[in-house]
Amino acid sequence: MDPQTQNTSLQRLQNVENRVVKVLELAGGVMEELASPSGPKKEFVNSHCREFMQSMKDIQVTLREEIKSACEYRPFEKCDYNARIANEICFQKLEYVLTQLDDLKQTADRYISSD
């Protein structure tokens, strides 16, 4: 996740946090209205409950998207470490084979020159 994406994700989560606070304030307002000595105002309770439910749905959608995005995050996906290590190992093997071939050639040259 590049820094820009990560920053955007953190901003969205900050917005979700702010919406959660607002939802709790709505719930508190409804609780106060229900506890009112003069009785709750039906219109007030209904509008706040609708707003509460819509906000909860929005929060849920945003959190699902963030979780999905976080699950898709693969920090080493574009890393070439494995390829570089494999290349280095192959290079070392080739150097070893070349050394062995040089030794074999020297041995063969000595054998031919001794005849």
UniProtKB/TrEMBL annotation:
Keyword Transcription regulation: yes
Statement: the UniProt record of this protein carries the keyword Iron: no
Alphabetical list of InterPro entries matching this protein: Mediator_Med11
Pfam families found in the cross-reference section: Med11
Alphabetized UniProt keyword annotations: Activator, Nucleus, Transcription, Transcription regulation
Chief localisation class: nucleus
Main function: Component of the Mediator complex, a coactivator involved in the regulated transcription of nearly all RNA polymerase II-dependent genes. Mediator functions as a bridge to convey information from gene-specific regulatory proteins to the basal RNA polymerase II transcription machinery. Mediator is recruited to promoters by direct interactions with regulatory proteins and serves as a scaffold for the assembly of a functional pre-initiation complex with RNA polymerase II and the general transcription factors.
Similarity comment: Belongs to the Mediator complex subunit 11 family.
Protein name as annotated: Mediator of RNA polymerase II transcription subunit 11
Record organism: Camelina sativa (False flax)
